């Protein structure tokens, strides 16, 4: 019984009218945790009830604390009929379990209903008293910190980076249970939300255990995903990088001097990684049934099957919960001869990080990726066919009995893919994979699993303390000038894994470099870049026949290599067209739909000084002796050359001329070679390696031999650069710009288009898709025109094909302004030309009809939050006066400690606005504290789609609500920003005939406290608390 | 958020297509190199956002506390101000009318007459009604109440106070004779009347203090009748005024000739105010009995001012007249109103 959870319901406001007669509401609140429920009194006839309840106390295991969400339901009391639910709030109490994060969650939370959306707000205070865990067999992992950020968090130092952790849990999807036929959509949505919340809690706890096992204390680059497999269940999986982090002591100045007494209660030895309690607990530790059983028995009282499944599961869970055993193995027997690095000992030397401490990255080999097509309802792994085969169709009744096997299957799938990635990396002479990520695309029963990363050679210094210091002979290169080391090839020149063209590094002239470099990571800080970068996208659609099951899977896996090839070609051509030679942050997404496959690759192109200058693109025709044709060709060639020249100017790529003698190696004409190694495997063991280097043909020459190729060239040329003053990239920051100002604005935009199903061709489809993406970008530029000059960073496109003729594209990005003056110096000369260009582009674009955009939805732009202090003081008289009153009352709070700890004094003044950004940092500000991970899942359903403004109105409102809830949670934790925010899933389904729609959104990020650099000096003097934050005032007056 | 759009879309003044056309005309496409489709979808976005905001704007304090949108305070104020802004032409049509369903039905006519879109008319009408409902039963200063509950600027809150006051007392403003008057004229009068003639003017602790006219005061006004009923008093009053103004007035002879008529008019207006019906016709009467006669004789405004000043002041010298305080309360306000109403 190591924890006591205390909850207090303070008040509500803006509740909806539930009683039409009186236009009022008789509200009360149910507080539920685990199986315990408390209720407040009914507060009669008010839309702003003041319950001011006692402290509800839950005495719970810390496993439960990690797994379960706190569930708060607001209801309207009805004497005669059943009480009507107004809505719910789920609070993840995980952040309260770290010793140095928040100690209290307190604030106004939007009351959310899956049918009606947000209906009022409720003020809640949550605290946890955690007792020191003396149980040596504990299954909880309280104290392990999680970060979505894919770099070492700003106020920490990485002592050791341990490596890859992964886990997945499986459950049946409540939406597909038999009971769903009789229960209301609301009940079913809520069951789903609760289940996913529970599963992600469990997942996080299990990952935490693995981290403790590896003697780490944190997970960085934590990426959790849901696979909605429909009938076959719900998979929640996560990957991350285990680290041992040390908090940097510098920001201590901002923390109040007095430590709260409650802090000692939950002090867990944290920074000293060897936690004696955890070492001894291996994966084989006997477990308690209750906690290890899969959730349905807990969350739904399905008495019939739950009791025995609990028991039957227990012995298997150690295995079933994923590769705990495998990963436990830094000590696993090793047969390899090369004891090169500690990495080799790991099963998967993968890192989800995309940015690294200086010196960590030694060489980068190139992108490695693997895809695999799987059938969901028939498990390919023969070992399980026997078990699955007979029960599959009746799983509604007894899915539990083989549920325990399922994670194993999914694990086997992923293990397979990871193995493949690893072998690719090895082929590139690398022992590790960085910037690693995994994704799935599911359509009906076919699922494409993808994994990609960047093969790399790492510096072992960070990996395992002391043990393998400096064993690598190649480490000598550390002495080389910074900025080019990572470009040098890690593989053997004579024994290259694929045909590539090597030259001497332009920077140091000593080592060989490839002519093009593709990576999935962010640009290393020390890399020397010439000019600016830009967003490069390859977009592709391929039609596919509708088919069932296996035939479908086969068709898809036959198509995949072609898609990969084409995506790659497009990327390469566009890169050349931009006169650049490297791609960073490459993300290739292949989405499967009923009748098509879509590929979308985004990356940021840059010109690396170390790599050779890219050559141009030449066009060759197949039919000689045709005068007009020749002419046409030469016209095109000219256009392409012009574009390259223009791009060079636009992105300021003026590489220094290299004297001839230095370029010793023969480069008559530079040739493009692929850095990509991929493979598809349809089932378990068939691995096809694809040579993407265009065979013997010189890739620079585009041959126009049919209309297809013509289209390709056209599409190359029609790609429009952003309007002047805008830059875009999909990495964290724009290479080549570093004078950021503090104005940022994040936005999410979802666009759904319906294709006319009639005679779609690949070309038409490609064009539609291309236009869709281009238009999305254009509308973003348009919206952000007031921020010029600015850069769209972290542009993240997600494509999904929810239905037959529906394409849904979701974009999240952040616009950051940069200092005009400094930028002007460099762009001034081009300004005039840019303007002209913009207008001509415009003409070109108008040719494209937009008949297909049936519905477009868009972004919820945040008003750019400027200086909060200023804005707060500029309030008009009356509201300011009101606020001042509440703040005054709030100040003599009993629990001085929590006030101090939850929100440092400096934050008090700024906490009103919660910023959201997909970046891991906030320009012009310093992150002083990480408060914990935000991981939320929402479902919204409507049966009156038209009335709510159609698809656009519905999605728009929903996204705004999701943002509101995220902000409320962050504010309640005492934070003022979410960094590394990501909308991981946005699944939209529509039934226009029934006027219905449903949308699922999963978002995550890190809640933080930041302080503006400009405010840092002022911090020591207490600010007049003119907080415009609605949350922390009213509630605490009453405590 | 685009502020230039905030106005039109919050107003609901135009359809999306109109707003797009408007923006196209502003040359935004040329400036930014955007396509029409982009503009269209961008405009739609704004409309959707504002549609969501509209609910909150119905109770502006909610906008302050809501969590769905993060809007800087200055922007919030702007939104509220724009949403509660109204058209002069529209307000003139409904000023003094009961803010009921019946009036709402006439909005299409008003819309065709004024050229303001029906949607916008509805919004403005609903705003008036909403404000009316909220402050109707409240104590304290009308303007303060409006400001507090709708977070309006001082200027706008005063205008709303006038609208509410007119609606409550149902002053007739629509007659043809009154067409030359602007909303500003009426608002000015309303403010004077609220300050001097309502319950709140004597006792600041009454319900409806600023909304209803002081009934007792209106009853007492009957007493003023003696000024015109008593022939001696009337003559004395006239001679006092004439002596004082001789040589100062360009229209002295006209004034002298008309004095009795004018005085009778003004005093009778006062005496009639006991009846609700006549209260409603206050402005009609004032224009008929005073403004029009003077105007037909081409009195300059300054002469009107001199006359009214002298006319009110001279009463103090009438020994037989006992209701000096009452007269001041009446005439002080009326003088202000008349001067404002006196123009072409």
UniProtKB/TrEMBL annotation, chain B:
Which Pfam families does the UniProt entry name for this protein?
Answer: FIBP
InterPro entries the record matches: FIBP
Query: Which superkingdom?
Result: Eukaryota
The entry's protein name is: FGF1 intracellular binding protein
Q: Which gene encodes it?
A: FIBP
């Amino acid at each position: 019984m190591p924890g006591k959870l205390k909850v207090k319901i303070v008040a509500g406001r803006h509740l909806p009218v539930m009683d039409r007669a009186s236009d009022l509401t008789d509200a009360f609140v149910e507080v539920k945790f685990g199986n315990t429920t408390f209720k407040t009194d009914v507060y009669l006839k008010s839309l702003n009830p003041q319950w001011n309840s006692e402290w509800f106390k839950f005495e719970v295991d810390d496993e439960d604390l990690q797994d379960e969400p706190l569930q708060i339901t607001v209801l309207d009391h009805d004497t005669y009929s059943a009480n009507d639910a107004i809505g719910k709030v789920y609070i993840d109490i995980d952040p309260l379990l770290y010793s140095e994060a928040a100690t209290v969650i307190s604030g106004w939370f939007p009351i959310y209903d899956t049918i009606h959306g947000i209906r009022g707000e409720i003020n809640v205070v949550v605290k946890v008293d955690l007792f020191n865990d003396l149980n040596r067999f504990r299954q909880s992992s309280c104290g392990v910190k999680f970060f979505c950020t894919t770099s070492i968090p700003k106020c920490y130092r990485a002592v050791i980076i341990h490596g890859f952790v992964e886990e997945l849990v499986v459950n049946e999807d409540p939406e597909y249970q038999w009971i769903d036929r009789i229960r209301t959509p609301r009940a079913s949505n809520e069951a789903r939300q609760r289940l996913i919340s529970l599963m992600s809690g469990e997942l996080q706890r299990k990952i935490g255990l693995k981290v403790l096992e590896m003697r780490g204390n944190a997970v960085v680059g934590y990426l959790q995903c849901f696979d909605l497999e429909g009938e076959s269940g719900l998979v929640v999986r996560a990957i991350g990088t285990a680290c041992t982090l040390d908090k940097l002591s510098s920001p201590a100045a901002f923390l109040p001097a007095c430590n709260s007494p409650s802090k000692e209660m939950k002090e867990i030895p944290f920074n000293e990684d060897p936690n004696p309690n955890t070492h001894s607990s291996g994966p084989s530790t006997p477990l308690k049934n209750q906690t290890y059983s899969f959730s349905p028995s807990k969350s739904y009282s399905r008495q019939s099957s739950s009791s025995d499944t609990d028991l039957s599961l227990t012995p298997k869970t150690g295995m079933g919960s994923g590769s705990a055993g495998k990963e436990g193995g830094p000590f696993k027997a090793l047969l390899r001869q090369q004891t090169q690095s500690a990495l080799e000992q790991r099963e998967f030397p993968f890192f989800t990080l995309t940015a690294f401490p200086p010196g960590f990255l030694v060489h980068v080999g190139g992108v490695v990726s693997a895809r695999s097509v799987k059938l969901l309802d028939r498990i390919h792994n023969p070992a399980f066919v026997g078990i699955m085969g007979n029960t599959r169709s009746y799983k509604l009744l007894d899915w539990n009995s083989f549920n325990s096997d399922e994670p194993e299957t999914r694990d086997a799938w992923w293990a397979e893919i990871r193995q493949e990635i690893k072998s690719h990396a090895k082929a590139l002479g690398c022992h590790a994979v960085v910037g690693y990520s995994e994704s799935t695309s599911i359509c009906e029963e076919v699922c494409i699993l993808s994994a990609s990363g960047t093969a790399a050679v790492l510096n072992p210094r960070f990996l395992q303390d002391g043990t393998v210091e400096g064993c690598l002979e190649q480490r000598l290169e550390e002495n080389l000038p910074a900025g080019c080391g990572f470009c040098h090839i890690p593989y053997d020149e004579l024994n290259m894994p694929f045909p590539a063209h090597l030259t001497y590094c332009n920077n140091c002239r000593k080592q060989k470099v490839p002519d093009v470099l593709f990576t999935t990571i962010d640009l290393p800080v020390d890399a020397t870049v010439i000019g600016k970068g830009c967003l490069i996208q390859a977009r592709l659609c391929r039609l596919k026949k509708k088919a069932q099951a296996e035939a479908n899977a086969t068709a898809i896996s036959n198509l995949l290599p072609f898609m990969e090839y084409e995506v790659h070609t497009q990327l390469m051509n566009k890169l050349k067209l931009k006169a650049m030679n490297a791609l960073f942050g490459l993300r290739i997404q292949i989405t499967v739909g009923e009748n098509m496959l879509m590929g979308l690759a985004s990356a940021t192109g840059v010109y690396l000084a170390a790599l050779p200058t890219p050559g141009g693109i030449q066009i060759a025709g197949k039919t000689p002796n045709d005068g007009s044709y020749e002419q046409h060709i030469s016209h095109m060639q000219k256009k392409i050359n012009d574009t390259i020249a223009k791009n060079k100017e636009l992105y300021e790529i003026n590489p220094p001329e290299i004297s001839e003698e230095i370029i010793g190696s023969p480069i008559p004409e530079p040739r493009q070679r692929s850095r990509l190694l991929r493979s598809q495997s349809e089932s378990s063991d068939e691995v096809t390696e694809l040579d993407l280097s265009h065979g013997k043909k010189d890739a620079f020459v585009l041959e126009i031999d049919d209309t297809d190729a013509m289209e390709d060239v056209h599409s190359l040329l029609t790609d429009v650069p952003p309007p002047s003053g805008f830059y875009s990239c999909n990495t964290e920051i724009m290479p080549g710009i570093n004078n950021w100002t503090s104005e940022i604005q994040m936005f999410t935009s979802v666009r759904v288009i319906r294709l006319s199903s009639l005679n779609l061709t690949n070309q038409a489809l490609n064009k539609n898709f291309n236009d869709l993406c281009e238009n999305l970008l254009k509308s973003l530029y348009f919206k952000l025109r007031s921020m010029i000059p600015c850069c769209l960073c972290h542009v993240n496109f997600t494509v999904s094909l929810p239905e037959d003729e529906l394409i849904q594209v979701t974009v999240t990005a952040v616009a950051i302004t940069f200092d005009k003056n400094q930028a002007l110096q460099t762009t001034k000369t081009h300004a005039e030309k840019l303007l002209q260009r913009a207008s001509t582009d415009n003409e070109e674009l108008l040719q494209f009809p937009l008949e297909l955009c049936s519905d477009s939805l868009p972004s919820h732009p945040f008003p750019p939050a400027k200086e909060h202090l200023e804005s707060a003081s500029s309030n008009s008289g009356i509201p300011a006066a009101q606020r001042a009153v509440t703040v005054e009352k709030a100040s003599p709070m009993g629990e001085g400690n929590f006030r101090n700890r939850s929100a440092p004094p400096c934050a008090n003044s700024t906490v009103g606005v919660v910023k959201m950004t997909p970046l891991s940092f906030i320009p012009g500000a310093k992150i002083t504290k990480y408060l914990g991970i935000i991981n939320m899942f929402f479902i919204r359903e409507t049966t009156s789609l038209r009335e709510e403004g159609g698809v656009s109105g519905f999605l728009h409102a929903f996204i705004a609500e999701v943002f509101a809830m995220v902000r409320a949670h962050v504010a309640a934790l005492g934070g003022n920003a979410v960094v590394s925010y990501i909308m991981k899933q946005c699944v939209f389904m529509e039934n226009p005939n029934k006027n219905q729609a449903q949308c699922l959104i999963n978002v995550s990020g890190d809640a933080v406290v930041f302080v503006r650099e400009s405010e840092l000096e002022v911090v020591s003097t207490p600010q007049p608390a003119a907080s415009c934050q609605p949350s922390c005032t009213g509630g605490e007056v009453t405590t | 958020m685009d502020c230039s759009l905030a106005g039109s879309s919050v107003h609901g003044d135009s359809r999306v297509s109109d707003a797009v056309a408007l923006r196209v005309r502003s040359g935004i496409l040329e400036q930014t190199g955007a396509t029409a489709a982009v503009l269209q979808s961008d405009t739609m976005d704004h409309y959707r956002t504002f549609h969501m905001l509209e609910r909150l704007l119905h109770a502006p304090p909610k906008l302050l506390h809501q969590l769905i949108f993060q809007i800087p305070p200055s922007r919030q104020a702007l939104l509220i101000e724009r949403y509660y802004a109204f058209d002069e032409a529209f307000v003139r049509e409904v000023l003094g009318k009961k803010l009921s369903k019946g009036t709402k039905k006439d909005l299409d006519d008003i819309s065709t007459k004024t050229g303001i879109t029906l949607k916008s008319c509805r919004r403005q009408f609903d705003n008036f009604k909403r404000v009316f409902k909220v402050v109707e039963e409240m104590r304290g200063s009308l303007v303060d109440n409006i400001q507090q509950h709708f977070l309006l600027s001082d200027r706008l809150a005063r205008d709303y106070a006038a609208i509410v006051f007119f609606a409550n007392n149902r002053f007739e403003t629509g007659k043809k004779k009154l067409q030359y008057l602007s909303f500003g004229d009426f608002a000015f009068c309303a403010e004077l009347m609220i300050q001097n003639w309502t319950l709140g003017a004597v006792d600041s602790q009454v319900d409806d203090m600023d909304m209803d006219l002081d009934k007792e005061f209106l009853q007492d006004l009957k007493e003023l009748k003696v000024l015109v009923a008593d022939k001696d008093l009337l003559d004395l009053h006239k001679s006092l005024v004439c002596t004082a103004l001789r040589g100062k007035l360009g229209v002295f002879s006209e004034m002298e000739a008309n004095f009795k008529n004018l005085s009778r008019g003004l005093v009778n207006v006062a005496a009639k105010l006991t009846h609700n019906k006549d209260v409603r016709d206050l402005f009609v009467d004032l224009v008929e009995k005073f403004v029009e006669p003077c105007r037909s004789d081409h009195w300059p405004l300054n002469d009107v001012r001199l006359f009214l000043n002298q006319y009110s002041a001279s009463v103090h010298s009438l020994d037989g007249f006992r209701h000096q305080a009452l007269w001041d309360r009446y005439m002080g306000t009326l003088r202000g109103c008349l001067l404002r109403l006196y123009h072409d």
